[in-house]
Amino acid sequence: MTEIAHRFVRAGDTRMHVAEAGSGPLVVLLHGFPETWYSWRHQLRALAAAGYHAVAPDQRGCGRTDQPNAVEDYTILHTVGDVIHLIDVLGAESAVLAGHDWGGVVAWHAALMRPDVVRGVVSLSTPFQPHADGPHLAGLRAGAGADTGIIAHDSTRTDFSAPIPTASLRANTGADRACSSTPGTPCPRSRDRFVESIFSAGRVVS
User: Fold this and answer.
1) Which of 48-57, 120-129, 138-147 has the lowest mean pLDDT?
2) What's the predicted TM-score (pTM) here?
3) C-alpha to C-alpha distance for 80 and 69, rounded to whole angstroms
4) Which of 79, 99, 102, 141 has the smallest set of CB atoms within 10 Å of its CB?
């Protein structure tokens, strides 16, 4: 089985933790929220076996990557900048970006801002949307209603800097999704590893 290596790199002003495997054309895998590189563990090995250099960073504020305290340090310019710096640090002139959830938003904007660096975008669950004129949640409420899934959830969570109880993570991260040929079979080991990867962010309490 292909081994996944871990290291820290300096992406601009951000000390970034990355997991990587393989060699060849660069593919950067951007996780969603609240996730880490671990969401891409299977794809890292598959892409490496297919002849690519697959890299999954912990994005700014997540996992073992730097976590600035100021909200102003998490704009799309900052997150895209991290990715572009990362590609440069890895010694590549360009890369394909694959993003899930929030990672998809970062991938789309990176392609818009730096088409000379981003060769392509693979976006999972996040189709491209132009930049909104107003607050993110206000636009979602107008389009889908205030009681729809993620809108209701995000509306009730106003302090994202507060610690998240471990029990809540275990119950709600989706880490118990099926991992075998039997539908609905939970993955306790994967769940625990997933939660452990988020623990390292320093914003989780037991």
Assistant:
1) 138-147
2) 0.74
3) 18
4) 141
